[in-house]
């Protein structure tokens, strides 16, 4: 499938369910802890520097951001979770918005869960993985910030991510670095094959 990644545009920022995009185009939904590098990963996939915003103040915006790629599919940047300094009211708002998005698995073609390659997945990461699994849609996990790992840490950490998140063997865990570009081709290939109609 030929997709022109330069043909990318921000479409809208949804703060509630009535703003959700419901057209026929596939949606590839990115979720992960605040600061794990969701926006950076989208920028890396598109080879853009400042396309999806890379936040200095994590957890501030609780919105779902839609980017349309080559009039073919959407990259959906879901709001990050697990930021300690966020007030309970904000966490509740996050929960309501995400609950509504995940209540419509028909909107999601493929899930991308970004985790931190350095650490054992958190309880929130496990919950997020369970939400994705519950959609019945294919899931891919990207272990980001790989550039911060020693070579000897890579395999054990990837294995730990697979075990803690209880991923089936059909779920790829891609070693990734939004910073260096590691894993870009593999994630891109997985996304492009995921959005093709069966
Ligand atoms: N070393 C390294 N730093 C990274 C990588 N990816 C992202 N970062 C840094 O991590 C920080 C957070 O990145 P963002 O892309 O804003 O993370 P986010 O998940 O979109 O955060 P929220 O939108 O707040 O949920 C930034 O300072 C990035 O430069 C990576 O692969 N390696
Ligand atoms: Mg972001």
Concise structural overview:
This protein has 198 residues and is of the alpha/beta class. The chain has helices spanning 38-46, 88-102, 123-135, 151-164, 184-194; strands spanning 8-14, 27-32, 64-69, 73-77, 110-116, 139-144, 173-175. It has 5 helices and 7 strands; from the N terminus they run ββαββαβαβαβα.
Specify the overall morphology: globular
Number of strands: 7
- How many individual helices? 5
For the sheet with most strands, the description reads: 7 strands, mixed
* Ligand kinds: guanosine-5'-triphosphate, magnesium ion
Gap between N and C termini, in Å?
13 Å
- Write the H/E string, N to C: EEHEEHEHEHEH
Structure characterization notes:
Helices cover 31% and strands 20% of the residues. It is an alpha/beta fold. Strands 1-3-4-2-5-6-7 form a 7-stranded mixed sheet, sandwiched between helices. The radius of gyration is 16 Å and the shape is globular. Bound molecules: guanosine-5'-triphosphate (GTP) and magnesium ion. Guanosine-5'-triphosphate is lined by residues 32, 34-40, 54-55, 58-59, 80, 144-145, 147-148, 177-179.
């Amino acid at each position: 499938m030929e997709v022109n990644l330069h043909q990318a545009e921000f479409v809208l920022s949804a703060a509630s369910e009535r703003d959700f995009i419901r057209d026929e185009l596939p949606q590839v939904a990115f979720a992960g802890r605040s600061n794990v590098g969701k926006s950076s990963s989208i920028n890396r996939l598109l080879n853009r520097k400042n396309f999806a915003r890379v936040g200095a103040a994590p957890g501030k915006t609780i919105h779902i951001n839609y980017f349309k790629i080559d009039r073919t599919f959407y990259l959906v940047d879901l709001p990050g979770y697990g930021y300690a300094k966020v007030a309970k009211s904000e966490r509740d708002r996050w929960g309501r918005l995400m609950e509504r998005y995940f209540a419509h698995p028909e909107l999601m073609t493929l899930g991308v869960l970004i985790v931190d390659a350095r650490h054992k997945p958190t309880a929130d990461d496990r919950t997020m993985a369970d939400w994705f699994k519950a959609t019945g849609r294919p899931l891919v996990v990207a272990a980001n910030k790989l550039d911060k790992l020693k070579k000897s840490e890579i395999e054990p950490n990837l294995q730990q991510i697979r075990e803690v998140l209880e991923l089936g063997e059909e779920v790829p865990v891609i070693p990734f670095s939004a910073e260096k570009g590691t894993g870009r081709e593999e994630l891109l290939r997985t996304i492009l094959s995921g959005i093709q109609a069966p």
